[in-house]
Amino acid sequence: MTEPSPDTPQPHLVIEPMRRADLPDVLAIEVASFSLPWTEEMFATELTPGSVGGTLVARMPAAGGSPAVVGYVCTWVVGDELHINNLAVHPRWRQRGIGRDLLCASLRQGRGRGARSAFLEVRTSNAAAQALYRQFGFEPVAVRRRYYTHPLEDAIVMRRTGL
User: Fold this and answer.
1) Active site residue 16
2) CB-based contact 112:75 (threshold 8 Å)
3) Disulfide-capable partner of 70 in 15, 46, 64, 93 (CB 3.0 to 4.6 Å)?
């Protein structure tokens, strides 16, 4: 399946591997996005050389400064499966195609690392994320009861084959 093209591409958006120096910005987005955020140590583990993880950040130019991190994605490739663990965009930058661009880049990265299918979990209440994933060919395959806490909620497991 071919990934959809962004409707309104961000011409200055740069997607590149996450660096340790990005962690303060990534953590700020994480805290703003999730009720039970990952810790700095969790992100640092994903950056460890030789790990199964793949981490990307999206940057936008900032007036008079270095480009600002506006989103990120963390994945694992285990065997021939890509697991999308965490994807978030700063609240001020949502609905601009950045999440779509990050998802597209992570699928491309996973494919390059030998993945042939992709999995993720998403809250049952997160209709916007589910719609994005469906645009990329993900389909619901299972429900994990009481998977999320704060608040307690089920997760929909979504899968895409044919990366």
Assistant:
1) no
2) no
3) 93
Query: Does residue 12 or residue 6 have the better pLDDT?
Result: 12
The catalytic position among 3, 40, 81, 121 is: 121
pTM for this prediction:
0.89
Alpha carbons 111 and 85: distance in angstroms, whole number: 16
Q: 30, 46, 72, 133: which is the annotated catalytic residue?
A: 133
| Residue 153: active-site member | no
- pLDDT tens figures, 40-86: 999 999 998 877 889 999 999 877 778 899 999 999 999 999 999 99
**One CATH from 3.30.70.1350, 3.40.630.30, 3.30.70.360, 3.40.1370.10 for 14-116:** 3.40.630.30
Helix, strand, coil distribution of the chain in percent, nearest 5:
30, 40, 30
Neighbouring C-beta atoms of residue 123, cutoff 10 Å: 17
